[in-house]
Write a structure and sequence with these properties.
six-stranded mixed sheet; four-stranded antiparallel sheet; Transposase_InsH_N; InsH-like transposase; Tnp_DDE_dom
Length: 552
């Protein structure tokens, strides 16, 4: 049964704080604990979590603001659950931050933490159309942080980073064995023939995985696929067993990793190059996908982060995050998140790298959202250096060609809105006599000179022209570069290098905890900066004006 925690609003007359030495109390007031209590703990909206509990039955829940705060603090300091609870029991700063003025006021065990996480996970699965509860809490705290710090949000930067869940990077043979073993273990043992029962024996794993030479891998893989097919055939007439996730996983592996050869009348294992990136990568995390970026291979997810970047800000806050399968492109994530970021923060300038460049995103940001996109570079094929760029032509509204670089006006021009293609015809005789005709993109034909290009090519040319300005490129790079430090802080400081959970939903919830923890760390830094500024003002030497005895 749900019940809000209001006990912290009225403290006891005599408690640990009141019995402390005055200097100790002064040190406590300067620590992070009062900041957390006032600006995070008291700002947690517990009512949003009421749906996790029964309305009118059962014993009252453990306080949601305490359970959430424990999760935030865990990721703030990258604690394990054991370390977290030890700190909660005996660290008075944490007790104070959680509204408790005496150590040991409320006992919480590990099972309570696990149960709360399970409820969050199940609620997120049951309500896929909603932003998850942790993101809602992230958004509420961000609004409060922005209000008290007066941080400017008109300029922001965006970047993505690879996130690996708690899985091992397995080869195909190991993956096939894991899938088979899970499927066999999910079946009643009395239904299995002897050769399938042996799959669960340690000797089978040793023989298949550890005693295989490189030239034997293909044959061993085919043997495991045959056992998988036999398992599926055995359960085909048993609907209750066939519906189990472990059996469905076996079917998925066969569908993705093999093809049926009608001549040989059997399944043939696909070549590595024919395996799709979104195919199964781990028997223990069915959502994880494969991605190769440059020379690096990664299995798992990608987290897209956005944060403020105005030079006038004392600190910067993360304003948005999203975790997706790593097969999703940066430009797709930006296109989905930018309208929401604009609505919440009023962003007007967004700084990214070239991986976020795309015609649709650029057009949407500029025309619909009034957001100026700034890039540090552009990916893809570079234009020929000796060719005249499209930006040298005079073009109206990116639809109508008015003149060429030599001021020749076209005989007529046309814009195909469906294909976003711009076409212009010029006098071929004038073009033949033009001194720049060899460098010009206009194609001279017998009866006409034709210029034809898509809007995407024009947008790319305009962006490259901006980046050709060294000052512009330097400013874009400078504004975006610091987000690499934010990514490093979250991955190394808050433990996102490799998560301790599996699955996309659980990983997204954990990344939410880490982003909230990072923003609180930034809030702590802001208070530290303001205290330092206040001290500098208070100790500033007084100056006496000439001829006046009163100091000012």
């Amino acid at each position: 049964m749900f019940r809000e925690n209001k006990s912290h609003l009225q403290t006891e007359l005599f408690n640990t704080t009141t019995l402390m030495h005055p200097r100790t109390i002064a040190q406590l007031k300067k620590s992070w604990a009062p900041i957390y209590y006032e600006h995070v703990f008291c700002r947690i909206d517990e009512k949003k979590f009421a749906h996790l509990y029964c309305e009118n039955n059962g014993s009252p829940n453990k306080p949601v603001n305490i359970l959430l705060s424990l999760e935030f603090i865990k990721h703030l300091y990258d604690y394990t659950d054991e370390q977290l609870l030890e700190q909660y029991y005996f660290n008075y700063q944490i007790a104070y931050a959680l509204g408790q003025r005496n150590l040991g006021e409320l006992y919480i065990c590990e099972r309570t933490l696990y149960d709360f996480r399970r409820r969050l996970y199940e609620y997120t699965i049951q309500h896929p159309e909603e932003e998850d509860l942790i993101f809602q809490q992230f958004q509420g705290l961000l609004e409060h942080f922005l209000a008290i710090t007066k941080i400017k949000t008109n300029e922001q930067r965006m970047d993505s980073t690879a996130i690996m869940p708690n899985i091992k990077r397995a080869g195909r043979l190991s993956l096939a064995f894991d899938v088979l073993k899970k499927g066999v273990a999910a079946c009643p043992q009395e239904l299995l023939p002897e050769k399938l029962q042996k799959v669960l024996e340690p000797a089978f794993k040793t023989e298949v995985l550890y005693r295989s030479r490189s030239q034997d891998v293909q044959a061993r893989l085919e043997k495991i696929v045959e056992l998988q097919e036999e398992l599926l055939a055995l359960t085909s007439n048993l609907p209750e067993i066939q519906a189990k996730p472990e059996i469905k996983l076996v079917q998925r592996f066969i569908d993705e990793q093999t093809t049926y050869d009608p001549e040989q009348k059997k399944r043939i294992v696909k070549e590595n190059k024919d395996i799709r990136p979104d195919s199964l990568q781990s028997a223990y995390d069915q959502d994880a996908t494969f991605r190769k970026k440059g020379n690096k291979e990664q299995v798992g997810y990608v987290c897209n982060l956005t944060e403020t970047c105005s030079e006038e800000n004392d600190v910067q806050f993360i304003t948005d995050y999203v975790l997706e399968k790593n097969t999703k492109a940066d430009v797709e994530m930006a296109a989905e998140r930018l309208p929401k970021i604009k609505e919440r923060t009023g962003v007007t300038d967004l700084y990214t790298d070239g991986g976020y460049y795309g015609e649709d995103l650029h057009r949407k940001a500029e025309a619909e959202l009034n957001v100026k996109m700034h890039y540090t570079n552009l990916t893809g094929r570079q234009p020929e250096a000796d060719k005249i760029p499209l930006t040298a032509f005079k073009i109206e509204n990116r639809q109508k060609v008015l003149a060429c670089p030599q001021q020749q006006t076209p005989t007529h021009t046309f814009y195909d809105e469906a294909k976003r293609r711009i076409t212009a015809w010029f006098d071929p005789q004038i073009c033949r006599e033009c001194p720049l005709h060899e460098q010009c993109p206009v194609k001279i034909q017998k009866k006409k000179a034709l210029l034809q290009f898509n809007q995407s090519a024009l947008l790319a040319a305009e962006t490259r022209q901006e980046l050709a300005d060294s000052q512009c490129r330097r400013e874009n790079t400078s504004k975006r570069a610091a987000i690499e430090g934010t990514v490093s802080a979250i991955k190394r400081g808050h433990g996102a290098q490799k998560l301790t959970v599996r699955g996309q939903i659980k990983s997204a919830l954990v990344m939410g905890f880490k982003c909230i923890a990072h923003n609180f760390q930034q809030l702590k830094n802001w208070f530290h900066i303001k205290r330092k500024e206040a001290r500098e003002i208070s100790v500033k030497p007084k100056i006496s004006l000439p001829g006046v005895g009163v100091p000012v």
